[in-house]
Amino acid sequence: MSVDRIFDELGHFKRFQACLYFAAVFQAIACGIHYLASVFLVERPSFVCAPPGNITDVLYGNYTGASLEEVLPFFKPANGPVVVRTAEGEQWELSTCQRTQRINPTDFTYEQLINRTTEKCDGNYHYVYDHSEVYQSIVTDWDLVCDREWLAKLCQPTFMIGVLVGALVFGDIADRVGRRRILMITSLCQFVFGVSVAFTGNYYLFMVIRFLLAMVSSGYLVVVFVYVTEFTGNKVRTWTSMHVHAAFAVGVMMVAISGYLVRTWRSYQIILSTCTSPFLFFCWKFPETPFYLMAKGRLQETQVLLDSIARFNGLEPGRLRAENLLEPEEALLEKEVTAGVAQPVEPERKLSILDLFGTWRMAWRTVTVWAVWFIGSLGYYVFSLGSVNLGGNQYINLFLAGAVEFPSYLIGCYAMDRVGRKRTCATALLLAGTACMLIIVVPNDIEVLAIILSMTGKFAIAIAFGLIYLYTCELYPTIIRSLAVGSGSMMCRVGSVVAPFCVYLADIWQYLPQLIVGILAFIIGVLTLWLPETLGEPLSSTMEEAEALGRKKSPEEGNKDPEEGLEINLNQSN
């Protein structure tokens, strides 16, 4: 099936494709927003256990005041407790998870050698939070501190589990019912679930709705990559697929800006969930992709779509016939079926994830591709989530973590079209590994250098992470393309689930997360060199065409289209 002829005849990226592309990519901003929103949803301000009674005096080191709010901005648990005196004359030493009462104090000083009684703060007591930076988060609303701190830490991993499930489920469904329906359903659900999160009254309902939000956000992101890939020609496919990630990066930057401007989590969530709502007014006009329609044998619908594209692009309708896109054997069978001479061969076979492992060649390809998805996601989120812990201003750090992706995609696109997909991917992974190793040797007091190296690692990993979507689309045929991207995204979300726990390993050793990412990036970067090159190759439609990628071609085949870069495959096959 020579569906790529559509773009040779009707344009690789003319007015029709451009309007459709920017409309579909606009909603991808919401995916970046929801994926990183938890950074400030679960932000934990300084806090201490609340004392009984009304406070009249407060001491903390050299700081004095009449209320806890005056000294909490300077409170650090490692530097000692906050000492308070109540209206009843009692004196208490307040720490994060316990409070200590002084027995018969002589005077009100910071340190006294007297008897004390200590009691643990639990569900029977309240906490006092510093509202100077974070006015309200789910941590302050539901006291997710001390013995309940693990509930706050589960927020991001649980969301990523939902992303994992959504990637697999919606990728499979999109191959069965079409890309268009999934885009419409998931975009509507993103808006509904996103706003609903802000009105949850307890932690458990919050987690359930966030899980559903994760599923639909993942579903949209997986399918939109396939959608824009199947609507653009191979001359621009690199740029169009990579820059879907640019929209995701815009979402990350919007999280940083909104987190800085809005310090109450409910308002913050509503603003983030409604900023892409205009997409809902025109997503219902999206057409199904010609690749999907042809793969399902729906030639009449394909013809209507081809005429619409031609008309919108200022070309004459009818210049390209759907039946002419079929191979000779397919075209003959189609004519016989239409004329009643022959019947369709057999019912369409249902495809599953096992089809990605149909042969040893495809199995090795799938394992390597999944590994790239995994390390891309693990590194991406270790650098992103860890950016707020690098020192300095956390909002600026997160904003930079999103902004640095723009040059990475520009350079990545240029390299992909010059040196090929696999060499660009391998080089990016090796650079990310190098940045991780260099962060390890940076002294703790040089925060600026640590931030620069972290952004370099994010820059490199973003290239590999952005490239693998397109690379996966080109490595697999139409009939399982969405499933391949969906299952790859599933492995990507396994990395996303692991990433928060990997960041927590910094409690054991500050640079252990970077060491893990660096080692894996080097190993997988080397394995990537065994994948076939797809630069300049048309999208495959059958398993046989996909399996033939990278194999040694005859001189006649190798010289068919040298301008499209097939000679690169010949050199690498030798």
UniProtKB/TrEMBL annotation:
Residues 108-536 form the Major facilitator superfamily (MFS) profile domain. GO terms for molecular function: transmembrane transporter activity. Keywords: Membrane, Transmembrane, Transmembrane helix. One of its GO terms (cellular component) is membrane. Residues 548-563 have a biased composition (Basic and acidic residues). InterPro entries: MFS_dom, MFS_sugar_transport-like, MFS_trans_sf. The keyword Transmembrane applies. Residues 542-574 are annotated as: Disordered. It is found in: Membrane. The chain crosses the membrane at residues 20-42, 150-170, 182-205, 211-232, 244-262, 362-383, 395-412, 424-442, 448-471, 483-506, 512-531. It is a multi-pass membrane protein. Its main location: membrane. This is Major facilitator superfamily (MFS) profile domain-containing protein.
